[in-house]
Amino acid sequence: xxxxxxxxxxxxxxxxxxxxxxxxxxxxxxxxxxxxxxxxxxxxxxxxxxxxxxxxxxxxxxxxxxxxxxxx
Length: 72
Known about the structure:
Layout: E1 7-13, E2 20-25, H1 28-37, H2 43-46, E3 51-58, H3 61-71
C-alpha cells in the first residue's frame, strides 16, 4: 500500500540581506536542514538562505507546484 505524501510550499530567507527563496518539497524538515547545512551549491547556499519564514501544506504535488510558481 502506497503511503500518501503531503507537499509543502515554503519560503526561506537570510536575515542580513532580506533575500527570499520559494521552494516545494515533500519533506519540509529535511529540506530546511539541507538549507541550513548548505548541502547543495547554488542560489540558497550562495545567499545564506537558511531561515524558514512561511509554509503551506497541500495534498497534491501539482497544486503545490502551481501555487509556488504564483508566489515566485
